[in-house]
Each structure stands twice: as C-alpha cells, then as structure tokens.
Amino acid sequence: MPDNSTPAELVAGLVDLLTVTREGDDSFVGQPQPGGVGRVFGGQVIAQALQAAQATAPEGMAAHSLHAYFLRGGEEGVDIAYETARDFDGRSFANRRVVARQQGRPILNLTASFQQAEDGLSHDDYTMPQVTPPEELTPDTELRRQFVAQLDHVSDLQRALMLRPRPIEMRTSDSLHWMNSEPRAPQAHSWFRTVAPLPALSDDPALHRAVIAYASDYTLLGTAALPHGLSWARGELNGASLDHAIWFHRPARADEWLLYATDSPWSGAGRGFNRGRIFDREGRLVASVAQEGVVRRRHQRTA
To answer: What's the CA gap between 169 and 139, in Å, rounded?
Structure first.
C-alpha cells in the first residue's frame, strides 16, 4: 500500500490479502502484498493457508489449532497456490492439510484441526501480565521512524521494511530486539489490533482468526534475540521461521486491543524456541502460540 494510505484502506487491503480465490473445490490462490519487497511475510502465508483450510471445513466447525512448517522463503510479487486435502471429517472434529506453493515449489505445509462447538470441562490457570495499557504507549510506527533516523547506515530494503505502512498497529510496553543493543530477559509484551475496524461485511470469526494468525508472526522470533543484544534490523543476525503453531482457545476480535506476551525459554544450535500468549482486554486467554526459528549471528565479511 502507498505511504499515504488511510487506516481504513490499509485494513481493506489486509482483508483482500487474506481473501483467497477459489480455483477449484480444494484449490485456492493467494495474492501477493501490493508493493511488497524481499521475502514474503510468514504470517501472510500462515493466514492465507488457514483461510484455504477454513473455506473447505464442514459447516458449523471452527478452527481450534494449526501447525505449520516453513520449507523455503517465498518471494514477494508472486501469487501463492494453496492445495487443500480433506484428510478427516468426523462428527466432532475435522482435519485439513494445506500445501502452499509458489511457482510450483512448496514453501509451507499447514495442518488445521476443526471442532464442532460443544460444552465441556473448563478451567483457567493463567495470569495476564500487568503491563502499561496501549493508550499510554507510543505506536511502534513512530518508534521505527526514530530508529531508522538514528542509524548510520541503512539500506533501501531495510528502510522500506521498517517504515512501510502496516495494517496491524502495535504498541510495545518494553524493548524489542531492534530497539536497543542491551541484553535483557527473553520476554516481550506488545499490544496489537488492526489500524481500523474490520469491515462489517467481513465481521466473521474465521476472518478474525486469520488476522490473529497473521499478527502472531510479529515479534515472536525476535524474543530469542533479546538475551544477546543482537538485531536483524541492525544487520547482526540471520534468521527465518522454521515452524509455527497456534491454538485458538476462544473467539476474539482482531480490531480490538489484544496483548501478545512472548518468551523464549531456550536457544542453541542455531535455533531459537519461542512461545506466545494472546489475551483480550478482559484478561482472558485467547490463543497460545509456539515457534522455532533459525537464529544465527551474522559474521561481517572482511575484504
């Protein structure tokens, strides 16, 4: 989207991006992000694959979990084809398997499980972190502008990635990996929501799940970099997501503030493991996330 896009236009663009086009009973195509540069954002591929799975799910069943493996990085500016397999349809649960391909090469495998709504045993054993409310925090877009202005050297690609308008607004209550070079505990807390309300005609729980899946790829892998004081934005790390899992616990609106609390209990062998919990403003646990990715120190080449 152009830099002068309104919030409503950014959100409409996100809805279009996550609306896959049916090419056959179980075949879909996801469009590229307009003006995208570099590698396709992993959250986009996860969300589009989930939408393909949801489009073939039995009536009355909602996605309660997904598990995805990234096979290779996708290229911006190229459509992504999604082939869905209906592996199982039961009375209570159903399963869909999706392969995302770009120019014939698989870039992601995703399996989603669906469940018919039912009452059951229920308990909660969690406490929502006490953090500064989003109304009192500076938007990350402003912090990114300040960050880029302070860099001595920044490539055109880095500048474009850091400053491009985003349909998801984030406000962080503590420092993310790109904000400073001081080693700190591998924990981060960020509020997120779409920059404008989702269209009323698109007020569908399945779309809100897809948007939450899209946003769940923000900040997560970077949590593993926090103890080391290193950052992708400063050119100090190489990294890529390897897998991504989400468990949807209850419906939530993606255009209302949600708290994303992430932590990284382990890194080693060139990989970092990260967990995330997503809460609504009432303190209810909406979703749980887990991801492992490549985290490697970038060694500067000498002449």
So the answer is: 7
Selected catalytic residue, list 33, 54, 216, 291:
291
Residue 129 contacts residue 179 (beta carbons within 8 Å): no
Could you confirm whether 241 is annotated as catalytic?
Answer: yes
Catalytic residue among 217, 231, 264, 267: 217
pLDDT in tens, 207-256: 999 999 999 999 999 999 999 998 877 788 999 999 999 999 999 999 99
**Nearest-angstrom CA–CA distance, 192 and 216:** 10
> pLDDT tens, 31-43?
999 988 889 999 9
pLDDT digits over 121-139, tens only?
999 999 999 999 999 999 9
Q: Active site residue: 241, 264, 267, 280, which one?
A: 241
- Cβ atoms 21, 206 nearer than 8 A: no
Distance in angstroms (rounded) separating the CA atoms of residues 284 and 299:
43
Residues 102-118: b if buried by 16+ CB within 10 A, e if exposed = beeeebbbbbbbbbeee
- Rounded Cα distance between 173 and 139, Å, is 10
